[in-house]
Amino acid sequence: MGLLEKIANIPELIKLENTLFVLPFTYIGMLLANSFNIKVFLLITLALVCARAAAFSMNRYTGKELDEKNPKKDSWKSVRIYSRKELLIVFIVFAAIFEAAAFELNLLSAELAPFVLIIVVLEPYAKRYTAHRHMLMGFVIGLGVLGGYVGASGTIPTTVPLYALLTGYMCFSAGSDIIYTMSHVDFDKKNGLKTYPVKYGINLSKQISKYLHYWAAALFIEFGAVLNFQAVVAAGIVSLFIFFFEHRNLSEKSERSIATTFFYYNAAVSLLMLCSVIISLQLIH
Q1: What sign does the CA torsion over 155, 158, 162, 163 have?
Q2: How far apart are CA 174 and CA 126, in angstroms?
Q3: What dihedral do alpha carbons 16, 276, 157, 40 form, nearest 10°?
Q4: pLDDT, tens digit, for every residue of 26-57?
Q5: Which CATH superfamily does the domain covering 14-284 fall into?
Q6: Residues 191, 197, 202, 206, Cα dihedral to 10°
Q7: Residue 149 CB-half CA count within 13 A
Q8: In the chain, where are the structural domains located?
């Protein structure tokens, strides 16, 4: 396969569509910093997309041999067409762009960016050592809220509500990751990978995921209530119902059910929260 075709398949490699889960919460962090302008918006978007791209390419790099053995992944172009050397190059390119975008934003972003990359490099190895890797992944993704705020303001937030939102988003992401790994439980068990479905079984893992999502909705509501953002409180309540129907419709026997659950419901919650924050800020001003 030629170079141009490999470049054209990078969006699939980095799962570009999954940024729909992350960008809305990053934008919320940015908006809460009260420092919006087009340049900051574009740089934060570039930094976030490149950080996730670096994370996904590192994940493919560290897990290439396992991915090639996984019958659910061996048909992915990102598994078949890239060598480990090429995956490492993709990681380096996106990591460099992320660092450059962070440097352009402000000094604090530039200082924190290397620590983000360290976490990105280490996180894929967690699945080899602990089933609690879901919570670590949730934490890493949850940092997007903090990244949006720091990128826009150049300061560390001191307001408690933002950390309630970050924690809620962490629970949201961890619960979703548990759902995703349900379809890989047999392969993961056979190859010694650590996940909640492997450790606790499908049924208990579904319960853990559900309560993490419910806790996320509760924290979203708290975030809105403390800031007196009525639209956010309403969005948090709607999110609770979305999570309820998400888990009611989830079937561990259906690949389609898991894929639909993982994408559409979660994208709906993320976009709903962003819209509610925008409405609340508009009502204040």
Answers
A1: positive
A2: 14
A3: 50
A4: 999 999 998 678 999 999 999 999 999 999 88
A5: UbiA prenyltransferase (1.10.357.140)
A6: -160
A7: 19
A8: 14-284
pTM above 0.70, yes or no: yes
Whether residue 25 contacts residue 144, with contact meaning beta carbons closer than 8 Å, is answered with yes
Angle among Cα 235, 239, 241 to the nearest 5 degrees reads 120
Quote the tokens at residue 40.
């900051």
State pLDDT tens for residues 245-284. 888 887 655 655 666 666 788 889 999 999 999 999 987 6
Distance from C-alpha of 93 to C-alpha of 70, rounded to nearest angstrom: 27
Which residue pairs from 100-108 have beta carbons closer than 8 angstroms and sit at least 24 positions apart in sequence?
Answer: 101/43, 101/44, 101/46, 101/47, 101/50, 102/47, 102/151, 104/43, 105/40, 105/43, 105/44, 105/47, 105/151, 105/152, 105/154, 106/150, 106/151, 106/153, 106/154, 107/154, 108/150, 108/154, 108/155, 108/156
Closest C-alpha to 226, from 181, 165, 141: 165
Q: How many CB atoms lie within 10 A of CB 252?
A: 17
